[in-house]
């Protein structure tokens, strides 16, 4: 025996409202159409579904059991409609975002939190990676978007780039570091102290290499490497070590009395932090809403960081050797 699921839904509607007319109205159907359906269902099962003469209508034991199944179908249908509506409006869904570790931990995680204060039904899955890995994950649809700094090289035609923040690195040390008490700095000063190495694969590796070339330094005393952002910050704050970090990352620790900026110019990268997405992908309204939130948050952050940068009394030009001072 096969029972049409639509017939069970109509039975459940009549049972819920207590009448055929009311049940038909709830489903957006006519009363005669629902009456015919119930008659067909009774003939199909060979048993009465309603107790004769009862008002409001009352189900027989068999009718009650079938109505329970119909109610489950009706609730599932309503839930499906709600899911479609919330997906299309961007109020629910899942977003998979990957990015370079230090930016994700220091900056993006806070923006995810502020986003979900407004959009509590959207799941955000965060992952880490550098540029080549992130592009591969975008290509294979493992992530919806990547937040990473890129250089002047153009992306492939399959990708779009939304710029967020120009690249800007700073020399970082502990609050109270001896370098902060010097009026002028020599190359010999920074060579004296140990350094923290950037994470392997990070763009900061190339940045540090360019700084060494520009300043004519053959090597530095690397004493710590491979740490997460928090471990690097804690290490720098507890030692006399130096580290190159993005200004926005250092700014996120402002007010915590841990790390400070050594106010000297260093060679800057020709990169821009931004959002990379695929041009052709499945629609994800929640993803678009999240991207708009990140773009707006970075507009505010950029203004604040620029104000902070102007408040710092920077040294005149890069480090100079002792003989040129």
TrEMBL record:
Pfam family, one: LysR_substrate
Domain HTH lysR-type: 3-60
Record keywords: DNA-binding, Transcription, Transcription regulation
UniProt cross-references to InterPro entries, sorted A to Z: HTH-type_LysR_regulators, LysR_HTH_N, LysR_subst-bd, WH-like_DNA-bd_sf, WH_DNA-bd_sf
GO function term, MF aspect, one: DNA binding
GO cellular component: cytosol
Family the entry assigns: Belongs to the LysR transcriptional regulatory family.
Name of protein: LysR family transcriptional regulator
Biological classification of the source: Bacteria, Pseudomonadati, Pseudomonadota, Alphaproteobacteria, Hyphomicrobiales
């Amino acid at each position: 025996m096969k029972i049409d699921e639509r017939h069970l839904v109509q039975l459940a509607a009549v049972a819920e409202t207590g009448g055929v007319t009311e049940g038909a109205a709830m489903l957006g159907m006519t009363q005669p159409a629902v009456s015919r359906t119930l008659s067909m269902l009774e003939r199909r099962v060979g048993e009465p579904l309603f107790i004769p003469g009862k008002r409001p209508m009352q189900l027989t034991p068999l009718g009650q059991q079938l109505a329970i199944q119909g109610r489950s179908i009706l609730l599932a249908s309503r839930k499906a409609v709600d899911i479609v509506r919330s997906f299309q409006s961007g109020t629910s869904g899942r977003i998979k975002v990957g990015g370079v570790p230090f930016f994700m931990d220091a900056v993006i995680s806070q923006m995810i939190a502020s986003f979900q204060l407004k959009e509590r039904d959207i799941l955000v899955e965060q992952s880490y990676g550098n540029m080549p890995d992130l592009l591969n994950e975008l290509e294979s649809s493992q992530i919806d978007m990547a937040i990473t700094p890129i250089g002047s090289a153009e992306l492939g035609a399959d990708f779009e780039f939304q710029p967020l923040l120009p690249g800007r690195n700073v020399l970082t040390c502990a609050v109270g570091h001896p370098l902060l008490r010097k009026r002028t700095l020599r190359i010999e000063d920074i060579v004296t102290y140990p350094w923290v190495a950037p994470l392997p694969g990070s763009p900061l590796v190339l940045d540090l290499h360019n700084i060494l070339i520009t300043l004519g330094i053959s090597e530095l005393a690397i004493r710590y490497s491979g740490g997460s952002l928090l471990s690097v910050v804690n290490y720098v704050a507890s030692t006399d070590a130096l580290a190159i970090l993005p200004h926005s990352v250092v700014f996120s620790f402002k007010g915590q009395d841990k790390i400070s900026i050594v106010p000297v110019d260093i060679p800057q990268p020709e990169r821009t932090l931004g959002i990379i997405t695929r041009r052709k992908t499945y629609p994800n309204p929640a993803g678009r809403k999240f991207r708009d939130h990140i773009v707006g948050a970075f507009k505010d952050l950029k203004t604040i960081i620029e104000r902070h940068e102007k408040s710092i009394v920077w040294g005149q030009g890069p480090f100079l050797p002792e003989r040129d001072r």
